[in-house]
Specification:
heterodimer, A: 247 residues, alpha+beta, two-stranded antiparallel sheet, 9 helices, B: 666 residues, five-stranded antiparallel sheet, 19 strands
Amino acid sequence: MNLTLKIWRQKDARDKGRMVDYKISDVSGDMSFLEMLDVLNEDLNNKGEDPIAFDHDCREGICGMCSLFINGEAHGPDRGVTTCQLHMRKFKDGDTIYIEPFRAKAFPVIKDLVVDRSSFDRIQQAGGFISVNTSGNTIDANAIPIKKHDADRSFDAATCIGCGACVASCKNASAMLFVSAKVSQFALLPQGKVEATQRVLNMVNKMDEEGFGNCTNTGACEVECPKGISLENIARMNREYLFASVK
Amino acid sequence: MALDSKIPEGPIASKWTDYKNHINLVNPANKRNIDVIVVGTGLAGGSAAATLAELGYNVKAFCFQDSPRRAHSIAAQGGINAAKNYQGDGDSTFRLFYDTVKGGDYRAREANVHRLAEVSANIIDQCVAQGVPLAREYGGLLDNRSFGGTLVSRTFYAKGQTGQQLLLGAYSAMNRQIGRGKIQMYNRHEMLDLVIVNGKARGIIARNLVTGELERHSAHAVVLGTGGYGNVFFLSTNAMGSNVTAAWKIHKKGAYFANPCYTQIHPTCIPVSGDHQSKLTLMSESLRNDGRIWVPKNLEDAKAIREGRKKPTDLSEEERDYYLERRYPSFGNLVPRDVASRAAKERCDAGYGVNKTGEAVYLDFASAIIRYGKEQAKIKGLNTEDEALVKKLGTEVIENKYGNLFQMYEKIVDENPYVTPMMIYPAVHYTMGGIWVDYNLMTTIEGCYAIGEANFSDHGANRLGASALMQGLADGYFVLPYTIGDYLAKDIRTGKISTDLPEFEEAENNVRAQLERFINNKGTHTVDHFHKRLGKIMWDKVGMARNAQGLTEAIGEIAALREEFYRDVKVPGDMYSFNQELEKAMRVADFLELGELFAKDALHRNESCGGHFREEYQTEEGEAQRDDENFAYVAAWEYRGKPSEAVLHKEPLVFDNVKLVQRSYK
């Protein structure tokens, strides 16, 4: 395949940034999207140009480090995958592909396609945990039976990889899907009930403070989420938040 | 220096308890005056940082990713072992200990492995209390499954994302401490040197990967939980950023590097598809609970499949060679990883491989789908003879157990594994070698510790499935917090360590000189160009099967490649900015030294054991042939200026509780 790439280049956080055109040839359908960028970077480097910075690490869809807004969609056109799992067979010879960073006020650009998502960490630090000592002197793991159905739903929420696609896809740059996934994971387990009130208040307040927008039930986050995190979680978080607020 | 493993006296079952009863403790008020640096925030580093902070120490934690939640422990799929015997199938601390020592081909340290087995049960309790959603049965209790090399079901799991859930558990424990201000977290920072003052580890030089600034950080002790070095092969199942740099820097400062050649080749990875490939993806070993591994019985059929004239589903049961079930009837498809990997290579080398390159075997779920489907039909009172219904019900069961793995396979290979068998081939996965540590997990540098995959101690020459997560969390949550306290008790009057000391100055200058050297080198080839060439030498001559001639050649070739690298590498951009090529250059420089030591270690070990297979040393049936008389020791290498001059120190391994026998999984 021969492709035209239009890629966002931005030297650092202060630089204004612009789209730059690149041509790439002999792209194989078996390549992942990031491997295609590797090939482009190798070429740029050989020509003495600065390679394009992008975030990635595990390249198997689980670490959540890769990002990229591809043709207007977080993680590109395929459903239920991260950019590292997107393969070039999803594109056609002669295609023009737009590649941009995840854009949100709370995700400032570091360089080119790399953004700073540490606001997600700070939300977790505000309450995304169960306050238990890490001493191992806890009760036996089977002392509290948990319904398989609840454990499975908790797991489904817990599979969020914190990539930020939900924020990037949302017209309000809302982090509700991300935050609600963690709130739900604990809300569904007996272990998480004890401090549920404080948890949801702290996390939601921190989310607002970090500059994320509000949810207006558009649902783009759910559509673009590579892990299929459900909107139900937002509903659950809203209920949790409401109960916590009136307590 | 003679190696002192500091293994406590007494019977194996009470060593750890007795030890804990007699170590020095630090008063909570004094812990506030003590700083600890933890480098790496995966299962080992993350759990250690959280626990040390909770105990009251001031912790500074470092990771090169943008968040501790990205550490590569997150990619572990299958599960975590614990000797809980919930299934009543005869499991016990001793059996987990025994299986691990045997699985490691009798090259692990008994006392460490027993301690690991002892604390394994606590890990599950701890994680469940933290809200880790492990798989449950309908009765509400935890579910278990089985992994290679064992005859019991002791593996706890969360679908195919166990590592993710356990890591997020450790991450949440860290977050709690970061929120309280007890951990200072340094994301996008890389440790580039260790600072030693008066013989003790007292700090690190780190590079802020966003600004490029070099930073000095001091502490009373330094802990490395920096993972393994499988990326020395370029292609591996490791994350792209996984590297040996921190471990190699402390090696160059005096920490011995143990058993570098012990590398696990995982049998069930997605085969290589082309030259553009950047990494390999593993398919969890748990798939072998239900998947059957086979190749065509006839060479003609294998050829026809490779050329696309036949499909695997065209071959009848009689035309297939289920070679693991044939060779190892008692363990079958669940033989340990080294055995399964070699058996796959043997079949492919003999011409039976099934993909275009001839380097793949099948992992087939067809019979499991029928088996589960019939069972479900019976439970639901439906017609067990209705083939379409049985397939549908069986597929649902398989999807429930391994759905995300099947989806991942389909995305990469573009084939539906529910319909056509998966293709798999061995790939570099986990490194059992690493920094030498004593029973306290301290390296040969005082006050410098190594935990998890970064150390060598618990796995021997091979690692059974679901034991890496166990070791990472055991070291971080339950072992290091005790052993480091014993050391830090001596430091309660030391006070803050100044970063103005000349040792910091010198280390920082050295790091800056290395960085400048790359930026100013006007070479012609990229970093990846050299990394790929190193990987090829490693895979061809230091990979799944090794011989003296190939290893000798590899040592020379790597040394020559290293010289060429320094002469001809090209790194764009500048030092004081976000520069991913410069990050890679620093890491590949260290791989180019480690690779040589790796080959040297493999050459000196004139035996085969676990993941180390020397072609000259095999049984008539092609199994690994150990030499306990001459090689029952840990090879710990001391750095002396370059890898070729490294000096070998031996820690003899004593087996009082497990009898050394030829491993057999027949």
